[in-house]
Request: fold
Amino acid sequence: MTLLLYVMRIDRIGWFKRYNYSNLSFIFSTGSILEDKERREESGMQKFIEYFAKQKTFVDLVTIFVFALGIYSMVNIQREVFPNVEFDLLSISTVYQGAAPDAVEKLVTNKLEQDLKEVTGIKKMTSVSQESLSVILLQVDPDQTTIEEAKSDAQEVVDRFIKPDGAENPNVKTIESKLTPTVELSISGEVDENILRDTAKLLGKQVEKVKQVAKIEYQGKRDLEIRVEADLEKLSAYRLSLSELVRALSARNQNIPGGTLESAQSGRATEYILRTMGEYDSLKEIENTVVRSNSVGQVIQVKDVAKVSQQFAKETIKYRTNGKPAITLVVLKKEGGDSIKAMEGIQKTVDLFRANLPPSIEVSVINDLSVFVKRRVSVLTNNLGWGLVLVVVILAMILPFRVGVITSIGIPFAFLGAIIIFYF
Reply:
């Protein structure tokens, strides 16, 4: 149509120019190129279709193979709420118990930030200093380094860091979604906290045996701690300072290697490893620790100036289930684990464990994320089924029924083919 209008316009004007001929020849050449290309594409596609139309047995075998492998992949494929994602983030956390935010920032965060500047590939550094805790987030530039190399470099910097007295060693870890919570289990009841802790630990050991489970994290399970409460009046009476009491406890509570000792008995050489075992095993050992002694054998022990007791750590968050004190077990699934299969194994373990519990202790399943996976799989299969039915019905109204059924096979064929690609 464009060529025809162009020629009519030239006849009406009655004059020609050189570039008109060149444009005209360009249109002719372009049109012929496009026609040849379309002819070649149609010829190639036609040959492709003709080949499969002639090889009926081969087509049937390919179809059966895709359906069989697709069904196998669909049954065994990993089902998860969200896919595993790497965020290119490193977290460096340091616990400095009892320190104020200003002290945490000055003694830990600022010094670590200064040292971490030498790590290659850090795109952004963010830090948070709060009471008893310092957290530094490092955003890694994937164009400059990998997350593994950045973590290794950061760990080397952290290992050289001289932490203040009372601070724990900084912990370097990668932020990723490999280990994702699958479900939370709650142990609750109006019973002694020690009984609740023991029950939670016992259930945790049973759940960890499930094949798909990676580890268990406890919430609401307070740690036991030893408290030495000094009496200031008694310290003054014995002319002792609080620092002397602390030094005596620190010096006693140690295991010190002593090297090796070689001995030859009955012509046989024997080597012994020497080690001084000084760590406390009981409250009585702490009470009997000597703080000071004199030349005549008189000693001042910890029990003379302080009270030693074992208590739970201070409760910062209260956990309750159905109004009762509770300990929550957060179950983390393995990276390659299936959420639905993991939950099935956990549920069997919980049912067996619940049968042996007294009526005063309850086990509750909360925040079951596998429910969402089941819903999504159900929606997917229902949509596939109804879509297939509607296609068969509509095609049967237009085409012969047999042709419509054969044509509709393309829907599950494409779906199962995609599942095979995702699985492998």
Remarks:
- The chain has 14 helices and 15 strands.
- The chain has a mean pLDDT of 83.
- The first helix runs from residue 2 to 13.
- The first strand starts at residue 86 and ends at 95.
